Amino acid sequence: MSDIERRINEVKQRIAMACARSGRDASEVEIIAVTKYVTSEITGEILDLGIHHIGENRVQDAVPKWEKLGNRGTWHFIGHLQSNKVKDIIGKFAYIHSLDRISLLKEIEKKSRQLGITASCFVQVNISGEKSKFGLAPQQVLDFVTEAAGMEHVRICGLMTMAPQVEDPEETRPVFRELRLLRDKIAKARIPGVDFLHLSMGMSRDFEVAVEEGATFVRLGSVLVNHE
Ligand SMILES: *Cc1c(COP(=O)(O)O)cnc(C)c1O
Questions:
Q1: pTM of the model
Q2: Which residue among 37, 46, 53, 57 has the greatest number of ligand 1 atoms within 8 angstroms of its CB, and so is best to mutate?
Q3: Does 80 sit in the ligand 1 pocket, CB within 6 Å?
Q4: Distance 6 CA to ligand 1 centre (A)
Q5: CA dist 187 to 92, 161, 180, 183, Å?
Q6: 54 alpha carbon to ligand 1 midpoint, in Å?
Q7: Which ligand 1 atom sits closest to the C-alpha of 223?
Q8: Which residue puts its alpha carbon closest to atom 10 of ligand 1?
Q9: How far is residue 220's CA from residue 82's CA, in Å, rounded to a whole number?
Q10: Is the separation of the CB atoms in 214 and 180 below 8 Å?
Q11: Residue among 221, 210, 134, 140 at smallest CA distance from 175
Q12: What tens-digit pLDDT sequence spans the chain (228 residues)?
């Protein structure tokens, strides 16, 4: 068994245990393998091992990988996205996790319309309020989702957040819980065109806490690949 295969199995077990602790079904949680640290070859190996969600955060690295492997998986753009780069990833990456402003929303709508597609987007929320982090403030999200729902070529499929880097992952719990409560509040508003909202939250350090709090996509890099 390869090192990556062993790591994938271990992560799946840890997700299953977090689901068991919180009364969830493990089938509700998808792993996005974040391949920003590794080559196309290793990304191909991860796809061979049955992980089909791949996440990349920089356009200049993401596009060449997509060109080699794009037809073999479902690609997620998870990094901060400049409006002038939308054209490079739209139609290639099935999901964008970093929708955080109206100007970007409008650009995604425009480019998707030109291609005749609908882009699936997560709204990035800065729950922790750290200045270093991108994302809307929680109180802006309902209005933003309502505006986005009016766009013909954008589908809001979820909310995404990044927790602060802390020693004890348990400290991230309130951040993940708040994203879930925000999701529930938006669901209650019954915005036309907005159906089930996924929660993209949890990284290598804190994914078990995120799963306990309702994550449906975890974005995992260093726990899956060795990149020292
Ligand atoms: C790098 C990255 C991840 C994965 O980080 P790890 O801690 O290595 O699991 C997840 N989400 C985003 C947005 C990232 O940039």
A1: 0.97
A2: 57
A3: no
A4: 20
A5: 28, 17, 10, 6
A6: 12
A7: 9
A8: 219
A9: 23
A10: yes
A11: 210
A12: 899 999 999 999 999 999 999 999 999 999 999 999 999 999 999 999 999 999 999 999 999 999 999 999 999 999 999 999 999 999 999 999 999 999 999 999 999 999 999 999 999 999 999 999 999 999 999 999 999 999 999 999 999 999 999 999 999 999 999 999 999 999 999 999 999 999 999 999 999 999 999 999 999 999 999 876
Residue nearest to atom 6 of ligand 1 (CA): 221
